[in-house]
Design goal:
heterodimer, A: alpha/beta, Rossmann fold, two-stranded antiparallel sheet, B: 604 residues, FAD/NAD(P)-binding domain, 28% helix, globular, binds flavin-adenine dinucleotide, binds thiamine diphosphate, binds iron/sulfur cluster, binds magnesium ion
């Protein structure tokens, strides 16, 4: 962290988005994380991505649980709505908020502990419901906030700072999400904004649950030799397989890709995601084959990164439940309350 | 790009824009921090080391530092560097005990300086502490040169001149007033001087030879001569209607002085449109505040004389075609205009003139009668004769005269000690970390958004009552306290150690002005297009690191808009960035290597 807030002064020629705002206008309060924490970089990527989409701050809801990662929702888009839930319970809060108001962009930020240890059940059910939200795991393999105990994402054999080795097998959020039927699954690295920023934009444009598992080194408790989640180790073992170039809907696709290497995906809001493949035989629309490929490479010690799986056709929570289009708080009282007559009718169904 | 060689003394010096732009390389951010701490005398002495006349320059310096100031690029107004110099001078305590000590026993070498302007005074200032005996010959009864005779006392009070000139004379310079040097041959022939320094200025005001010039002579004045007569009290009045020809700084002093001698309407006549004016913006503002009218596109044609007396002037009304780059591509006369005038003052430039230097002394002159002077050593073609100030390369300003004086003093010193004047000590830079603790720096790194303070002036009603009422009042304590916080501490450098960086991006993300980028290497033109924010200011350097350990990419810093907040260094988990104060060692005569130092006798 730093002790003085980032001053408001900015580069005079910073670009402006469709709302006339610079990315500086999408910042939040001063980060209190350790200097060099991967989470701060993800915050910067989120800031950049949201600015690039020209989202209006008041139309964003940020949600999180507990942990260093979960603190970061305070550090971007100061003007957005926010909720810090109890540990591991962010999906429930997101569910409730989203059910009541489907018009907001929901951004959940969680940790590997918050999601895969205490919050695993909640996480799974949010995926099952295909809740329309972006869910970012800031994955460092430890409980950073409580001083570096192994989390459920720690690899077998990885060493803690004091030398002890982890013995329990990790839960991989990507494979878990694929098996639970997730409609958008991605992995990235806090140190690769070129990959991460468009992934976040694609995730926010996706209708349904968009998971991005971001490897995010904990400089203080998990950046030593012997750790499989350090900056150096991650850089050696991460392998981009499908990068996603985000193309806002008003813009033409101009990039020139070799045939067969790029695959445009039309998103629900009219924007497009251009999938750029690095591995010829990888198919990010084939759930079974993609899962197999990821596991194959994982055995060889490689983390595949990029937009690993996408299915734009899956119905999201509101489609399935036939909920009204408008937020509940904008519906007339009569539509929300059945009245005493109506209530009696409903109750009579159960007599 | 090859990694930037920050060990080259120019690299970090250039980052301190003001210091780099100052001809005398004044350590501006250092003195501003000292003012912020209330250490006015120390701030004054830091100034004096480089610019010798902080009280004078704090009022009338041409301030090339201010347009260069980084704050002016980050916001729109630079730090009021010059005004703060005056704050140091106005609030200093006794400082004479901190002047360099002068040895009682002399080194046996005698130097003659011709003219007692700022350049000669600087030569004396630098050579006296080394044991030289310096004699200054001045034609007038008072020292100071144009600072005394031409810069009006409502801008530069006599007392300020007296104090700062007094400090140098007090170091033991022999000042021979009312001593015009009429023949250099005679002075050189007299013997006894090991070197002669010519600091006689550029005393000849340019003429405007137009019809009517001779008949109207009684009411047509050469600006610098006229100001001199006013300064010495020989002239106390002027007509009601006054025209000033020319729109440089001399014109500004002539128009404002006219108002104080009784003129009712003063018009400054400019040949070209405003963007071509030579006068500094603040001098124009000050004149216009006093209701001086500035009229553009009027080219003088004729002095109009009636019954043997000046009646006014005839002007061609000019029209110009100006291209997209702001240059004049064509001009034509669109008409004629007569303006009545009781007096006309010509302020169209000055030249140096040396009627008293014989042309057979081995001192070569070019075809315009300008002496051939080496731009680094200030030596003429006769080895023991040196030139500096306005006398060397034509009219400049005080701060240039001071720097010429420093450089000439080095040459004179080396010449007298029998070592080559050309093998001068090179400038250097020392760096010292400002880290005090985890997030603690021994400078105030927080960016203060306060705006530039405005100089308070004596009211328009009061200021004309006497010729010598100083118009600028100086900053109040509150203004000074606010203004010092605007300085960005550009001398607290961001120093990078590539081998420590783990490429976590923390510095990139926190930098408020998007100066930093980690990216694949490339040539400079290419790199400039691939940074977090466009690096379009080609005058400002890019720092490029050695390849980083993990990915082989490079750290690139665009120096242009760094506000030296130190957040990169605070955020860096490995201290790959550090904030270090740069001391620019700009050598003076006293710093020359030992082999050229005279064996110095006891200090008095
Ligand atoms: C009207 C006016 C306003 C100015 N305002 C500013 C300003 O605001 N800020 C700024 O920085 N600069 C200003 N300048 C310029 C500045 O004053 C000069 O550049 C500076 O004084 C030059 O210093 P110098 O020592 O080279 O020469 P000078 O100051 O000209 O000193 C030369 C001295 O030599 C003496 N001398 C000449 N010949 C002989 C001789 N043969 N024997 C003995 N003595 C001799 C002269 O009497 C004079 O005292 C102004 C100039 C003018 C004309
Ligand atoms: C119910 C509950 N149990 C335990 C804790 C203690 N606790 C706080 S943060 C945390 C782990 C956070 O780990 P992670 O989500 O990976 O976040 P990180 O700090 O690593 O970013 C734990 C166990 C708690 N706050 N609440
Ligand atoms: S403890 Fe680790 S996770 Fe928490 S702020 Fe520090 S570096 Fe980041
Ligand atoms: S000191 Fe560092 S963080 Fe601050 S502006 Fe300069 S490069 Fe950016
Ligand atoms: S904060 Fe330090 S370690 Fe991190 S990228 Fe910047 S210089 Fe490198
Ligand atoms: Mg964690």
């Amino acid at each position: 962290m730093t002790f003085i807030p980032k001053p408001k002064v900015r580069h005079p020629s910073l670009p402006r988005n469709a709302l006339g705002l610079t990315r500086r206008d999408y910042e939040g309060v001063l980060s209190t994380l350790c200097a060099g924490c991967g989470h701060d970089s993800i915050t910067a990527a989120l800031t950049e991505a949201i600015w690039g989409l020209s989202l209006e701050p008041q139309n964003i809801a940020k949600l999180s649980g507990i942990g260093c990662s979960s603190k970061t929702t305070a550090y971007f888009v100061g003007g957005a709505h926010g909720f810090n839930s109890v540990h591991g319970r962010m999906p429930a809060i997101a569910m409730g908020a989203n059910a009541a108001n489907r018009k907001l962009s929901y951004i959940g930020v969680s940790g590997d502990g918050d999601t895969l240890s205490i919050g695993l059940g909640q996480f799974c059910h949010a995926i099952r419901r295909n809740l329309n939200m972006l869910y970012v795991i800031e994955n460092n393999g430890v409980y950073g906030l409580t001083k570096g105990q192994f989390s459920a994402s720690a690899d077998v054999g990885t060493k803690a700072k004091k030398g002890e080795q982890n013995q329990q097998p990790p839960i991989d959020p990507v494979l878990l999400a694929m098996s639970l039927g997730a409609s958008f699954v991605a992995r990235s690295f806090s140190g690769d904004k070129q990959q991460l920023v468009p992934l976040i934009q694609a995730g926010l444009s996706h209708r349904g649950f968009a998971l991005i598992d971001v490897l995010s080194p904990c400089v203080t408790f998990n950046d030593h030799e012997g750790s499989t989640k350090s900056y150096a180790y991650t850089r050696e073992h991460y392998e981009p397989v499908v990068n996603a170039d985000f193309v806002p809907f008003e813009r033409e696709i101009v990039a020139d890709y070799a045939a067969g290497e790029s695959l445009p995906v039309m998103m629900h809001d009219g924007s497009r995601v251009l999938l750029r493949k690095f591995a010829h035989d990888y198919d990010p629309t084939d759930r079974v084959a993609a899962s197999a490929f990821i596991q194959e490479r994982q055995k060889q010690g490689e983390y595949l990164t990029g937009l690993l799986y996408i299915d734009e056709s899956q119905p999201e929570f509101h489609d399935v439940n036939g909920t009204p289009d408008e937020p509940l708080n904008s519906l007339p009282f009569a539509a929300l309350s059945p009245g005493s007559q109506g209530l009696r009718k409903i109750l009579s169904r159960y007599r | 790009m090859p990694p930037t060689d920050t060990s080259h003394p120019d690299y970090f010096h250039r980052v301190v824009d003001c210091q780099w732009a100052c001809p005398a390389h004044t350590d501006v951010p250092e003195y501003i921090r000292l003012i912020a701490q209330g250490r006015f005398t120390d701030a004054y002495m830091v100034n004096r080391e480089s610019n010798v006349f902080p009280g004078i320059l704090g009022r009338v310096c041409d301030r090339p530092c201010e347009p260069a100031c980084r704050r002016g690029r980050v916001e729109d107004k630079p730090v009021a560097i010059c005004r703060l110099k005056r704050v140091a001078a106005d609030h200093k305590d006794e400082f004479h005990d901190q002047l360099p000590p002068v040895p009682r026993e002399k080194n046996g070498k005698r130097i003659a300086c011709i003219g007692a302007g700022p350049v000669s005074l600087t030569v004396a200032n630098d050579l006296l502490p080394l044991g030289y005996q310096v004699t200054i010959f001045e034609q007038f009864g008072e020292p100071g040169g144009l600072m005394r005779t031409n810069i009006p006392s409502f801008r530069l009070p006599q007392a300020v001149l007296d104090e700062e000139i007094g400090a140098i004379v007090g170091m033991g310079a022999e000042l021979k007033l009312n001593h015009p040097v009429k023949s250099l041959r005679e002075l050189l022939g007299r013997g006894g001087f090991d070197a002669v320094f010519v600091g006689s200025g550029a005393p000849k005001g340019k003429e405007l030879k137009l019809p009517g010039r001779e008949e109207g002579a009684a009411n047509i004045h050469i600006g610098i001569d006229w100001l001199e007569s006013v300064a010495f009290g020989h002239l106390k009045a002027i007509g009601r209607e006054v025209l000033i020809i020319g729109v440089g700084n001399t014109a500004m002093d002539c128009c404002r002085t006219s108002l104080r001698l009784g003129a009712a309407h003063v018009k400054v006549m400019a040949r070209k449109p405003r963007q071509f004016f030579k006068a500094s913006a603040w001098e124009l503002d000050d004149a216009e505040e006093e209701n001086v009218e500035i009229i553009v596109n009027r080219s003088p044609k004729q002095f109009v004389i009636e019954h043997g007396k000046l009646k006014g002037m005839l002007f061609d009304v000019m029209e110009y075609d100006i291209d997209a780059r702001g240059r004049i591509t064509a001009e034509r006369v669109a008409g004629e205009e007569f303006l009545p005038a009781d007096d006309v003052i010509l302020a169209i430039g000055q030249e140096n003139a040396f009627p008293w230097i014989e042309r057979d002394l081995g001192i070569e002159f070019d075809k315009w009668s300008v002496p051939k002077v080496d731009a680094t050593t200030f030596q003429s073609t006769r080895p023991e004769v040196f030139f500096g100030g306005d006398a060397a390369f034509g009219p400049k300003n005080i701060i240039w005269a001071v720097e010429h004086g420093h450089q000439a003093a080095i040459s004179i010193h080396r010449h007298c000690q029998g070592v080559a004047v050309t093998e001068r000590l090179a400038p250097g830079v020392n760096l010292q970390s400002r880290k005090m603790g985890m997030h603690e720096w021994s400078y105030k790194n927080d960016y203060n958004p306060v705006e530039r303070r405005l100089m308070p002036h004596v009211s328009l009603k009061e200021r004309f009552k006497k010729l010598n009422i100083e118009v600028e009042l100086g900053f109040t304590a509150e203004q000074a306290a606010a203004e010092v916080q605007r300085c960005l501490n550009c001398d607290i450098q961001t120093v990078f150690e590539a081998k420590l960086c783990i490429e976590c991006d923390a510095c990139i993300d926190i930098c408020p002005t998007d100066c930093l980028t980690i990216t694949a290497d490339g040539d400079e033109a290419d790199l400039r297009t691939r940074l977090r924010a466009p690096a379009t200011n080609l005058e400002q350097a890019l720092y490029v690191s050695a390849p980083l350990k993990q990915t082989g990419r490079v750290m690139v810093k665009d120096e242009d808009l760094c506000v030296h907040c130190g957040l990169c260094a605070e955020r860096c988990p490995t201290a790959a960035w550090d904030m270090q104060k740069s001391y620019v060692a700009w050598p003076h005569a006293k710093d020359q290597p030992a082999k050229c130092q005279p064996s110095l006798p006891k200090i008095a």
